[in-house]
Amino acid sequence: MTTTIDGTRIAQRIRAQVAAKVTEATGSGRIPGLATVLVGDDPASAVYVAAKRRAIREAGMRDFHRHLPPRATHDDVAAVIDEFAADPHVSGILLQLPLPPQLDASVLIDRIPVTKDVDGLTTGSAGLLARGERGLRPCTPSGVIALLDAEGIPLLGAQVAVVGWGELVGQPLAQLLLRRGATVSVAHEHTTDLAAVTRPADIVVVATGVRGLIGPEHVSPGAVVIDVGIHRTPAGLTGDVRSAELDGIADRITPVPGGVGPMTIAMLMVNTLRAAQWGAEREPVAA
Ligand SMILES: NC(=O)c1ccc[n+]([C@@H]2O[C@H](COP(=O)([O-])OP(=O)(O)OC[C@H]3O[C@@H](n4cnc5c(N)ncnc54)[C@H](O)[C@@H]3O)[C@@H](O)[C@H]2O)c1
């Protein structure tokens, strides 16, 4: 019997915990706030930003938002980031990606101070992660770790295969898993024998953007399978794993939708709260 991991329920629990801590912080005069910056009219980005803002408000945090036109220049976006960076009421800044082609995402992301980098994507945050120092970790990989923890799946000494080495998910996830004492193998597009990497694993995490890449030929009986991939199809959302084919083989598996996706937003809430605490330690502010 394969159990489906209910990411929506776990994410709701984490969001409720964040909301309770926000209420405490508000009582002492500090309301955490997230500033979202959206550039252009990409419909998917607008939906993602709206969901993040809704979650922020539901958690009782302050919602700051700026929407810039598709032709916004580097200086326009940089000025908004700098304004939010200087605002003590803004705990975290999120620059929604992708950006229009005239803008260099990595340069603009690096303008966000590490203490407000709730997406964990700046060079500074990547360095803090690599060195195991205090910092904000990218939301999706930390959501995967939180999901495994919530399910009581031990990481210390576990064999974990991470399929996909992208900057957003695979790379930071491999580092987070290593810090938790897992033995980590990373596969990517040049891996010649994918099954040889994934079959020995107790936990297989897939984040490749290749729809249906992983099936029964890659997974040993009893393994836990975490599907990070998201693909929009006429039949709805689907992932990087052929999950129906793993029924009866995997011990536990995340669905798409309802697995890692909701965890990403929950971890954004966690990061905004952490950023607020970090900011308060650095420069105490009145409400
Ligand atoms: N659930 C969420 O909240 C969430 C968040 C972010 C990304 N994602 C999804 O995760 C997936 C990965 O995102 P990303 O930004 O890390 O992607 P990316 O494009 O940066 O990286 C993809 C990685 O997959 C590897 N890869 C490609 N083909 C492969 C193959 N045939 N075999 C093995 N490895 C292969 C590449 O080498 C690369 O390392 C995407 O589907 C994305 O939509 C989901």
From TrEMBL:
Catalytic activity: (6R)-5,10-methenyltetrahydrofolate + H2O = (6R)-10-formyltetrahydrofolate + H(+); (6R)-5,10-methylene-5,6,7,8-tetrahydrofolate + NADP(+) = (6R)-5,10-methenyltetrahydrofolate + NADPH
Keywords: Amino-acid biosynthesis, Histidine biosynthesis, Hydrolase, Methionine biosynthesis, Multifunctional enzyme, NADP, One-carbon metabolism, Oxidoreductase, Purine biosynthesis
Pathway: One-carbon metabolism; tetrahydrofolate interconversion
Residues given in the record as NADP(+) binding sites: G164, W165, G166, I230
UniProt xrefs under Pfam families: THF_DHG_CYH, THF_DHG_CYH_C
Coiled-coil zones: none
Function of the protein: Catalyzes the oxidation of 5,10-methylenetetrahydrofolate to 5,10-methenyltetrahydrofolate and then the hydrolysis of 5,10-methenyltetrahydrofolate to 10-formyltetrahydrofolate.
The protein's name: Bifunctional protein FolD
Organism (species): Streptomyces plumbiresistens
Gene: folD_1
